[in-house]
From TrEMBL:
Name of the featured protein: DUF1963 domain-containing protein
Lineage: Bacteria, Bacillati, Actinomycetota, Actinomycetes, Mycobacteriales
Organism: Nocardia panacis
Amino acid sequence: MTRTTPPRAVDVAAACPALAPLARPATRLHPRSGTPSVYDSSIGGPLLWPTDEPWPHCHGPHDWNFLTDAWNPHGLNPLQSLADAKLTRHNPVPWRRTADVPNAMLPVAQLYTRDVPGLRPPPGKDLLQILWCPLDNADAMPETALVWRTAADVTDILNTPPMPATVDYGYSYIPLPCTVESERIIEYPSDFEKLGSEPLEQMRQWASRQQTGIDPDDIKSWFKDNICVAPGWKVGGHIQWGTTDPFPQPCPTCGTETEPLLTVASCEWDGGTHSWIPYEDQALADDYSTTIGPDVTIARGYKMILRVCPTSPDHPHVQLMQ
């Protein structure tokens, strides 16, 4: 099934010319429950990983956790084992503090360039793989690993990746396997204070001319929720600032300002962003407004954005929570 976002209620170029030059494409991923294979783009699905390449591990330090050693005694697929445990809220081992031993990472996203417009791979690469540690790091986010590869080079596939030694007690970082239905959209920045007074004044004038019924004092919030930045998982686009004011995150290698690569969302929409619900999902709006898809939770329901250097995909990425 494809997903189609309803058109925005505003022609931004006409209503707010100051925002129009700042348009940026984004790709909504629309992850939905499924059974992807290693040859599919997915969220929380299996990775096309070569047997002769070491699996990424996180070396901590970590906070309070519980052991998962007993979860897979029969050699079941570890991803399915963890997903089943999450769905049943199975807790075989009591709370305890574990030693800071290397912790095997879990697949977060596998994105083939053929499926996801907007990815900018290194020359010759066509597959992006992102993994994370299923525990918080010192910044209250999971540590992530980012790998670009050429899919055709992987002929001997690792079918049983290592199991994490520990996972978050609330299962927050175990994404349920989902297929991806990519959709290209256009976004605009929502950090209006940084843009000066002109965009906000143009929004107020538009609301007045159109007799929208929107309080001019609330027009900024309305644009932010309904026009500028889409909710949910996506590639590229703009950042929906809110937890903090906008601040620079330069590339650790060259100092160039980083750009959003992947936004990992705690929900696909919420009460303020129903206008972004795809046509195909609108019957679910009241029942699944915050739990549809991979069912991960960043902190208390925020987003995590992986940012990369626009000058070189080989430079290290940085993380942001909003």
